Amino acid sequence: MIQRRSAPPANSSPAFYQLLVRVVQVADENIDSAALSTVLADIRDHFGFDSAFVYEHEPSGRLTLQESASTSGRTNLPESFTLDSVFTADQTAQLVDFPVLYTDAPGSAETDTTCRIRELFASESMFIVFISDDVQAIVACVGMADTRRHEPPEDDELDQANMLFKPLAERARLRVYKRKLGYAVTTLESIMDHIGFDIYVNDFDTHEMLYANKSMAKPYGGWENMRGKTCFEALYSGQSDECTYCPKKHLIDEQGNPSKTYSWDYQRPFDGKWFRVISTAFTWTDGRLAHVISSTDINEAKNNELLIKRMAYCDMLTGMPNRRKFEEDMENALSNAQARDEGIAIMFMDLDGFKQVNDVYGHNGGDYLLKHVADMFLENALTADRCYRYGGDEFIFLFENTSPTRACEYREAILGTLGRPFVLNDKEIACKGSVGIAHYPEDGTSYWQLLDKADEAMYRDKEQRKQSR
User: Fold this and answer.
1) Same fold across 10-184 and 198-301
2) Tens digit of pLDDT for each residue in 255-278?
3) What 3-state class would DSSP assign to 420?
């Protein structure tokens, strides 16, 4: 047996108090590992043990040796171990319930748990403190081991050891927490940077930028170039006030509490790219209300959508807006005219002699004529955004906020444009047409009433032209 030193009781030893002060000082988690190893050596020598140690939980699930102080030749501290490879679940639970254990050579008082501890550390005598987290999982252990057998300790010596190792155990627990937090932050940042869409967070009231992932920050020079700015300063050069379309009002209830998510499509001004934007309000880490904005690149989808819409609204032969587009624009024009008490004029135009062109020049000749007529009106400032191909050789024009007198002037301008000759198969052809006018509200107040009136007026014009030849 090893005789322990004949020191005064722990609670009256000046050497013990000096050692306790050093332990408390190095228990600060900012003190380096070398200082901790030195104080472990002092604790080891104070009790006459071979070694002292600190093990901490790693992401792999193993308790790994972080610091140790061993006498010359001491090599049997395990580098790492897992609890479930040493203890049963019940034994691990006992370590959580009774974290401070002293174990020496086999005897009547030794349990299977303490026996397994001695076997793990290849030691005859052990003092060990297990530290658990808030979910009762062991995250660290600190203590001493000796290959020699010690006599059972006095109570004051156990108290002494406990007082010295508990601050070191708390330091270990804090380091494990910080390590886990660091891993969690790194993992979360990696997820946010590779999630496939852009995210930024700003203060709900001041608009101060609080966070942006890499894909969001990259077009603006990186996060360092956005930090400390308001969102509108960071995202829009020269802007000094809140965006007119800021969705904040959609995100909170009458009491100012986060209420719902809001989504809209946004086109970035400096490169024209389209994004689907989703916004919501939530509580930031410091308790303030924050606004998180995530956006997904929908440029290809949006362009495809616009292309499909253009195809749905465009006459493929002439490039003009088609009948469907006219019907939609007409409904909007009627709604505006009713609200503003304004007049609307629509003009229905049919080409004269179109069948003869098809008969003489074939359908390719007829198509050429239709495209020529469409180009004339699309290139004319008066009709460029007011003309539509209704079908066959029929065209229609829509003029908002127009009086009957002004509508007649527009009709004459249309006939003048149409009358310009063009060349087809080396022959000069004069294109002619008949145009009828309908005016809102005099000739009707609905789409179909006005269309019927314009159609009737167009046929009257055609008959008059035939009679005048």
Assistant:
1) yes
2) 889 988 999 888 887 788 888 899
3) coil
Note the pLDDT tens digit of each residue in 327-353: 999 999 999 999 999 999 999 999 988
CATH superfamily to which 10-184 belongs: GAF domain (3.30.450.40)
Residue type, 402: T
Is residue 130 a contact partner of residue 55, using CB atoms and an 8 Å limit? no
Superfamily of chain region 198-301: PAS domain (3.30.450.20)
314-468 maps to which CATH number? 3.30.70.270
Of 352, 340, 344, 314, the C-alpha closest to 445 is 344
The helix (H) or strand (E) run that includes residue 137 is none
Long-range contact pairs involving 313-316 (C-beta distance under 8 Å, separation at least 24): 315/374, 315/389
Mean predicted confidence (pLDDT) in 63-80 = 85
CA distance 343 to 116: 97
Length of the chain: 469
Query: Averaged over 216-243, what is the pLDDT?
Result: 92
What 367-375 contacts at long range (C-beta under 8 Å, 24+ apart), as own/partner pairs, is 367/317, 368/424, 369/424, 369/429, 369/431, 370/317, 370/318, 371/317, 371/318, 371/319, 372/422, 372/431, 373/318, 373/418, 373/431, 374/315, 374/318, 374/319, 374/320, 375/318
Q: Give me the residue spans of the domains in the chain.
A: 10-184, 198-301, 314-468
**Separation of CA 94 from chain center:** 45
52: amino acid identity, one letter: A
Structure tokens at 409: 């002037």
* The model's pTM: 0.55
103 to 129, 158, 163, 422: CA distances (angstroms)? 12, 11, 18, 110
Contact 305, 373 (CB under 8 A): no
Amino acid at 152: P
The 3-state DSSP class for residue 198 equals: strand
Element (H, E) at 46: helix 33-47
b vs e for 353-389, b when ≥16 Cβ sit within 10 Å of the residue's Cβ?
bbeebbeebeeebbebbbebbbebbeeeeebeebbbb
> Which residue from 38, 45, 46 is spatially nearest to 22, judged by alpha carbons?
38
Decide if 429 contacts 423 (C-beta within 8 A).
yes
